[in-house]
C-alpha cells in the first residue's frame, strides 16, 4: 500500500505524470447526470422493460415467473405473518421451502410499493419488472461510480459503466433477477475505496479518508447480500480479500493512526454484514439438515460449465451477433448459463489498457492477472485440466463454494476487471485529447479541439454499449383460468412439472392457498413422487396419493395439457372415485372431499 498525505502523480503509462484534478462538475450534479443517462440507456436498450409491467416477463416463461411469485410471497409474509417468511404456500407448506433456492429479499420495498403482497399476478409481475429495471440502472451507475472512485475520469468511467451494465451475458441472465442485481457490488467497492482514501490510480491518501462513505459501503453490502447467494458467496469472499489486503497494507505502512470514525465504521459495518449473512444462511442450513439430498453434486458442474467459446457468444437478440452466431449457440447444452460474453469491444479496450492507462503499471498488471484468474474460474470444469486446479479446488475446499453449480456466473468478475482496464485506457485517451491536469486544475480547452475530443471519446463508449444492443424478448403471461382464491385448498394444478409449476405458483398469488405444486432449485423426493403418482389422474391410485398429501381440490387446465400425460384427462370418467367434477371450460375442477 502506497501511503501519501497529498495527491500524488498518476502514472500515465508514458513516463509523464499528472496529479489528481479537481472535478470540473460538482459531484452531486455529475451523479444526477449519470443516473439520468442510465435510465435513458436502459429504456432505449430494452424497450419492453416498462411497457407492460403487469402482463409480461423478460427472457422466457420459466424462472422469471418463480421470482415474481417469490417477490409477492415475501411482501405477503412480511405484512401478514413475518414468522412464516421461509415457509411459503407452495410445496404443501413444507418447512423453509423458500430456502430451496436463492432469495431476493432486498427488493421488499418494491414489492410493497407495487402491492404485490395481495395484488395477485399483475402486481407480482410489476414488482419483478420494476426490480429488473432498477437492477439494470444500478449496474450502469455502479460501474461508473467504481471507476470514478478508483481514479478514472468521466470518459473512462462511462466506458466502465457501459461495459459493466450492458455486458452481453446480461441478456441471457435477465431471467435470473438475483444474478443481474450486481449494482450493489460495484457501489460497495466504490464506497469502501473512496471512504478509505484509496484509489487504483493514486494509492492511499491519508488525508482523504471518509468514515461516512465506509459506513455507506457496508450498508450497501448488507443490502446486496440480501439479493441472493448466487453472486453473494463470491462477493463475500471478495470483501474478505479486500479487508485482508487493506490490513496488510496498513501493517506495511507501519500502522499509521487512523481516524476513530473510520475504525468504528469498519468494525460495525463488517460485523453487520457478517450478522446479516449468518441470519440468511440459517434457513439453508435447516433445509440441508432435513434434506441431505439438497446438496449440490459435483457431477452437475459438467452440465453447467460453459465452454471457452461461450466467452465469445452473445444473445440471439443481439442486433449484430444474433444471426452470425446462431450455429455456435445451437451447440450449447444450456445457452442461458453458457453464453457469457463480457463484450468484444470491452475486451479489446481492456487489452489496450494493459499497455496504456491512467492506472500505474504494477496495479494494472495485477488487475489483468486477477481478471485472467476469474476467466479461468468462469469456465468451471471446462477450464484447462478439467478445472481440477481452479474451480474444483475452490468447490471442494472453500466453505459455501459447493453451492455454486453454475461457474459461468463468475463472468461478473471478469466483466468488472475488463471494465476497469478499459476505463484506464480511455481515461488516458481523454487526457491526450482534452489536455491533462496541471496543478490540480483541469486545463481549460475550447473550440474545435474540445468538440473533436468529446466526439472521439464518445466512440468507445458507444461501441461498448452497442456490442449486444437490443435487450431481451418480453413474453405475455397467461392468467389463471379461474379465481384461485375461491377454490377450496389445499389444491393442486395439473399438468405439473419442474418448469410449469413456476406459472402455477404465480397463479397462487391470488389468495395464497396452500399449493401442492412447487418447483425450485431443490426438488424434494416426495414432490417428484407426487408428480409421478398423479400422471394417471383421475384414477384410484392418483386420488389416493393426492388425499394422502392433504389435497382437497385438483384443477386441470385443458390449455396446458396438450402433449402431456394429462392431454385427455379432462374427459375421463370419475365414476366410483368418490370425487366431484365441475367443468368450467379451460379449467376442470375436481373436489376430492
- Helical residue percent band: 40-55%
What summary fits the major beta sheet? 4 strands, mixed
Mean pLDDT: 91
- Number of distinct helices: 23
Structural domain tally: 2
Secondary-structure class: alpha+beta
Strand-helix topology:
Elements: E1 3-4, E2 9-11, E3 17-19, H1 27-45, E4 56-58, H2 63-80, H3 108-113, H4 120-149, H5 154-165, H6 169-173, H7 177-180, H8 183-195, E5 198-199, E6 203-205, H9 211-225, H10 229-252, H11 260-290, H12 301-304, H13 326-330, H14 335-338, H15 344-355, H16 361-378, H17 391-397, H18 411-434, E7 437-438, E8 441-442, H19 448-466, E9 474-476, E10 491-494, H20 500-507, H21 525-533, H22 540-548, E11 553-557, H23 558-561, E12 580-583, E13 587-591
Parallel strand pairs: 1-6, 10-11
Antiparallel strand pairs: 2-3, 4-9, 5-6, 7-8, 11-13, 12-13
Describe what you observe in this structure.
- The protein is of the alpha+beta class and 593 residues long.
- A four-stranded mixed beta sheet has the order 10-11-13-12. Strands 1-6-5 form a three-stranded mixed beta sheet.
- The protein is 51% helix and 7% strand.
- α4 packs parallel to α8 (183-195) and α5 packs parallel to α19 (448-466).
- The termini are far apart.
- β2 and β3 form a beta hairpin.
- It is elongated and about 90 Å long.
- The protein has 23 helices and 13 strands.
- It has two domains: 41-466, no CATH class; 484-591, no CATH class.
Amino acid at each position: 500500500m502506497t501511503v501519501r498525505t497529498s495527491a500524488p502523480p498518476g502514472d500515465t503509462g508514458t513516463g509523464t505524470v499528472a496529479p489528481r484534478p479537481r472535478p470540473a462538475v460538482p459531484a452531486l450534479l455529475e451523479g444526477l447526470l449519470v443516473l439520468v443517462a442510465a435510465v435513458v440507456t436502459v429504456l432505449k436498450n430494452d424497450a419492453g422493460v416498462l411497457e407492460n409491467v403487469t402482463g409480461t416477463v423478460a427472457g422466457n416463461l420459466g424462472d422469471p415467473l418463480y421470482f415474481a411469485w417469490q417477490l409477492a410471497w415475501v411482501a405477503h409474509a412480511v405484512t401478514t405473518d413475518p414468522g412464516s417468511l421461509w415457509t411459503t404456500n407452495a410445496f404443501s407448506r413444507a418447512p423453509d421451502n423458500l430456502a430451496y433456492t436463492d432469495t431476493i429479499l432486498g427488493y421488499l420495498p418494491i414489492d410493497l410499493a407495487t402491492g404485490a403482497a395481495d395484488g395477485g399476478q399483475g402486481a407480482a409481475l410489476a414488482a419483478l419488472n420494476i426490480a429488473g429495471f432498477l437492477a439494470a440502472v444500478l449496474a450502469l451507475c455502479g460501474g461508473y461510480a467504481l471507476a470514478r472512485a478508483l481514479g478514472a475520469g468521466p470518459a473512462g468511467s462511462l466506458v466502465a459503466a457501459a461495459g459493466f451494465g450492458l455486458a452481453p451475458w446480461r441478456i441471457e441472465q435477465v431471467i435470473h433477477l438475483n444474478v443481474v442485481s450486481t449494482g450493489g457490488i460495484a457501489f460497495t467497492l466504490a464506497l469502501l475505496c473512496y471512504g478509505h482514501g484509496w484509489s487504483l490510480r493514486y494509492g492511499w491518501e491519508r488525508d482523504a479518508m471518509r468514515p461516512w462513505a465506509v459506513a455507506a459501503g457496508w450498508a450497501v453490502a448488507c443490502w446486496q447480500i440480501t439479493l441472493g447467494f448466487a453472486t453473494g458467496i463470491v462477493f463475500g469472499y471478495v470483501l474478505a480479500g479486500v479487508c485482508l489486503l487493506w490490513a496488510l497494507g496498513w501493517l506495511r505502512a507501519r500502522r499509521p493512526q487512523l481516524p476513530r470514525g473510520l475504525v468504528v465504521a469498519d468494525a460495525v459495518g463488517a460485523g453487520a454484514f457478517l450478522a446479516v449473512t449468518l441470519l440468511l444462511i440459517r434457513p439453508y442450513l435447516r433445509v440441508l439438515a432435513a434434506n441431505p439430498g439438497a446438496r449440490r453434486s459435483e457431477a452437475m458442474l459438467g452440465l453447467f460449465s460453459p465452454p471457452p467459446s461461450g466467452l465469445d457468444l452473445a444473445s440471439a437478440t443481439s442486433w449484430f451477433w444474433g444471426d452470425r452466431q446462431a450455429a455456435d449457440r445451437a451447440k450449447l447444452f444450456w445457452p442461458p448459463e453458457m453464453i457469457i460474453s463480457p463484450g468484444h469491444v470491452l475486451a479489446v479496450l481492456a487489452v489496450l489498457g494493459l499497455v496504456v492507462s491512467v492506472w500505474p503499471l504494477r496495479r494494472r498488471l495485477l488487475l489483468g492477472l486477477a481478471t485472467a484468474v476469474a476467466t479461468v474460474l468462469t469456465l468451471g470444469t471446462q477450464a484447462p485440466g478439467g478445472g481440477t486446479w481452479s474451480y474444483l479446488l475452490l468447490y471442494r475446499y472453500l466453505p459455501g463454494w459447493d453451492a455454486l453449480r453454475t461457474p459461468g456466473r463468475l463472468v461478473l468478475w471478469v466483466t468488472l476487471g475488463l471494465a476497469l482496464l478499459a476505463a484506464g485506457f480511455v481515461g488516458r485517451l481523454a487526457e491526450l485529447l482534452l489536455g491533462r491536469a496541471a496543478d490540480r486544475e483541469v486545463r481549460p480547452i475550447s473550440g474545435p479541439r474540445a468538440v473533436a475530443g468529446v466526439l472521439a471519446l464518445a466512440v468507445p463508449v458507444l461501441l461498448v454499449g452497442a456490442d449486444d444492443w437490443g435487450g431481451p424478448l418480453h413474453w405475455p403471461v397467461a392468467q389463471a383460468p379461474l379465481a384461485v382464491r375461491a377454490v377450496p385448498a389445499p389444491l393442486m394444478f395439473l399438468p405439473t412439472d419442474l418448469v410449469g409449476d413456476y406459472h402455477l405458483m404465480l397463479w397462487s398469488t391470488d389468495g395464497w392457498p396452500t399449493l401442492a405444486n412447487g418447483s425450485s432449485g431443490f426438488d424434494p423426493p416426495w414432490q417428484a413422487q407426487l408428480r409421478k403418482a398423479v400422471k394417471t389422474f383421475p384414477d384410484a391410485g392418483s386420488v389416493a396419493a393426492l388425499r394422502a398429501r392433504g389435497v382437497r381440490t385438483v384443477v386441470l387446465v385443458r390449455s396446458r395439457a396438450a402433449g402431456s400425460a394429462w392431454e385427455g384427462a379432462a374427459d375421463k370418467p370419475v365414476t366410483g372415485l368418490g370425487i366431484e367434477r365441475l367443468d368450467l371450460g379451460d379449467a376442470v375442477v375436481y373436489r376430492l372431499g
